[in-house]
């Protein structure tokens, strides 16, 4: 074979040598470009999937917020109607104010939202006037940041993080308030936000999620963390 190579003209030898060098260079360059393009495409896909997932997450969170807010507002306004009705009974002479407040308190404390949600009332000074825990009655809570916000707002929706004494971490809590001025009661419906997952209606955002397809065949989907077993 060496003898055959020696018999080839120098011009042909150079042509073969340079051809091999060019072919090797093209192969190396092509492999490098392929790797770079693959990395760019993969990063773009991951970025797009992350963006789409975050969009879906925000849809679910917004839907949950709306559902929780509407439910709590309905409860708070219903309790405000109870206070107004009893106050009218006082004005008509059917009840004393003390009796009306006692009946309103009984109605408020009979309600429970989720496992820990309750109805309570503060006055404009941050004094607890209605609460299921007797130890908190007539206690000045105006030093707490969320109570200060309640005193200032008196009505509407607000959220804050709260940690019970025996809990290790804080949990997001929600409050919807209405204000009954004749008794100076800030009627507050309070509960942990994670106890209202059943209020989220998938139909509220189902079509918007399905419209977030990716490429020609990509599609979004959602899974429940609940594990079901069959016996």
TrEMBL record:
Which is one Pfam family of this protein?
Answer: dCache_2
Could you tell me which InterPro entries the record lists for this protein? Double_Cache_2
Superkingdom to which the source organism belongs = Bacteria
Task: Keyword check for Membrane, yes or no.
Answer: yes
The UniProt keywords, alphabetically, are: Kinase, Membrane, Transferase, Transmembrane, Transmembrane helix
TM ranges: 12-35
Domain Double Cache: where?
Answer: 43-223
- Gene Ontology MF annotations: kinase activity
Output this protein's name.
Signal transduction histidine kinase
- UniProt source species: Pseudodesulfovibrio profundus
Q: What taxonomic classification does the UniProt entry list for its organism? A: Bacteria, Pseudomonadati, Thermodesulfobacteriota, Desulfovibrionia, Desulfovibrionales
């Amino acid at each position: 074979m060496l003898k055959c190579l020696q018999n080839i003209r120098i011009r042909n030898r150079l042509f073969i040598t340079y051809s091999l060098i060019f072919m090797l260079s093209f192969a190396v360059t092509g492999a490098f470009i392929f790797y770079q393009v693959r990395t760019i495409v993969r990063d773009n896909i991951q970025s797009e999937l992350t963006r789409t997932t975050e969009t879906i997450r925000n849809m679910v969170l917004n839907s949950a917020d709306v559902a929780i807010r509407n439910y709590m507002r309905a409860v708070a306004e219903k309790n405000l109607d109870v206070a107004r009705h009893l106050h009218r009974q006082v004005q008509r002479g059917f009840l004393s104010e003390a009796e009306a407040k006692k009946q309103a308190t009984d109605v408020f404390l009979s309600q429970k939202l989720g496992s820990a949600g309750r109805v309570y009332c503060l006055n404009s000074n941050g004094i607890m006037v209605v609460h299921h825990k007797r130890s908190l009655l007539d206690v000045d809570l105006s030093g707490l940041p969320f109570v200060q916000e309640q005193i200032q707002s008196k009505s509407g929706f607000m959220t804050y993080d709260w940690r019970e004494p025996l809990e290790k971490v804080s949990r997001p809590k929600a409050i919807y308030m209405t204000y009954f001025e004749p008794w100076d009661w800030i009627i507050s419906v309070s509960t942990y936000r994670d106890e209202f997952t059943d209020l989220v209606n998938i139909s509220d955002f189902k079509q918007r999620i399905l419209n977030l397809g990716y490429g020609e065949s990509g599609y979004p989907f959602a899974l429940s963390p609940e594990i079901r077993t069959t016996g």
